[in-house]
Specification:
CATH class of the largest domain: Alpha Beta
Radius of gyration: 22 Å
CATH superfamily of the largest domain: NAD(P)-binding Rossmann-like Domain
Mean pLDDT: 92
Low-confidence stretches: none
Order of helices and strands: EHEHHHEEEHHEHEEEHEHEHEEH
Helix content: 25-40%
Oligomer: single chain
Strand content: 15-25%
CATH architecture of the largest domain: 3-Layer(aba) Sandwich
Length: about 350
């Protein structure tokens, strides 16, 4: 096939863009200019209005793109891309393409599923340990220069972690939890019945067993993609099904949790605490009570970002780029029947 033109819509290092342009099998690789990044985000966040409000300055970039690398595409943007033949999501999930029409048009979409599985699992384990060991209490002591014990420090051995979503992240986390002698329960969408001692966990559960997992777990870790099935998966009823001593850890998507219901549960002691890397609205609103809650540990949607991540992402993309220009089947394809 002809050398493809690649459009990159999200921030990427200039060195990597230059590397793509030096590839003899690429026609042209270009980013949206930096001055357009804010505009692009505004258009992306405008939902259905995007088709009417999309800045005209962006049109030439989309019009000549054969391949798009993105973290998200605006609503209806399939109509901006007459030459588009492949989209590489620069993330594990593709919920940010909902409404773009890309997948529905039959354009192949590949993800970076698994690229950040290990660091996200490590991040979840870090939060689990910090909550169990009451690190926030110790940090408060240190800031106040007070040498005093912090109560309610727990041990990991014998505790139960419930992993909602036994994909690449969940499997990494399960291995680490087993190393701490924890009991591991896990839900997998494809499981049809409860099974013991399989897939590296003590009990593998179908989605219908979520109430059982919540009632059994000392730590509930969410690692599912955002979809119509997982939107507000953890709401008022589910939070009340958890132990009052249990902690909720979310490294999935903010929308998987009913955030106002979670805030009430944290305030009222329905659950003991939470470790949150993702939120319904990002950046998190300044007025959110989550900032100041003593039983909450937060990070700014950076669980998977490490100094080695871009190298892994690049390898995965370049492998597929070679396949694309050679006419071979792409790897890491998103299933168009259940993309979100």
């Amino acid at each position: 096939m002809d050398k493809p033109n690649i459009l990159i819509t999200s921030p990427m290092s200039r060195d990597y863009v230059a590397k793509l342009n030096a590839n003899p099998r690429v026609g042209k690789a270009q980013q949206l200019p930096r001055e357009m990044w804010t505009q692009f985000r505004e258009v992306y966040e405008s939902g259905p209005k995007a088709e009417a409000t999309g800045p005209k300055e962006m049109a030439p970039f989309f019009a000549e793109a054969d391949v798009i690398i993105c973290m998200g595409l605006p609503h209806g943007s399939v109509r901006w891309t007459p030459r588009l033949k492949w989209v590489q999501a620069w993330s594990a999930g593709v919920d940010h393409m909902k409404g773009s029409g890309i997948i529905e048009a039959g354009i192949p979409v590949t993800s970076l599923a698994g690229a950040n599985a290990a660091p996200v699992a490590e991040h979840a384990m870090m939060m689990l340990l910090m909550l169990a060991k009451n690190m926030k209490g110790f940090e408060d002591n240190a800031r106040q220069r007070k040498w005093r014990p912090t109560p309610d420090v727990d041990e990991m051995g014998g505790r139960t972690v419930g992993i909602v979503g036994l994909g690449a992240i969940g499997r990494h986390l399960a291995r680490m939890a087993r190393g701490f002698d924890m009991r591991v329960l896990a839900i997998r969408r494809s499981a049809s019945s409860r099974q013991k001692a399989v897939e590296g966990v003590d009990e593998l559960l179908p989605p219908a067993d979520l109430p059982y997992l919540l009632a059994q777990s000392d730590f509930v870790v969410l690692s599912v993609p955002l979809s119509k099935e997982t939107d507000k998966l953890i709401a008022e009823r589910e939070l009340h099904a958890m132990k009052r001593t249990a902690h909720l850890i979310n490294v999935a998507r903010g929308e998987v949790v009913d955030e106002p219901a979670m805030i009430r549960a944290l305030k009222e002691g329905t659950i003991a605490g939470a470790g949150l890397d993702v939120f319904t609205n990002e950046p998190l609103e300044q007025e959110s009570p989550l900032w100041d809650m003593p039983n909450v540990i937060m990070t700014s949607h950076r669980a998977g970002r490490t100094v080695r991540l871009e190298e892994r992402q690049a390898r995965m993309f370049e492998e597929n780029l070679e396949r694309f220009v050679s006419g071979q089947p792409l790897l890491y394809l998103v299933d168009p029947k259940s993309p979100y």
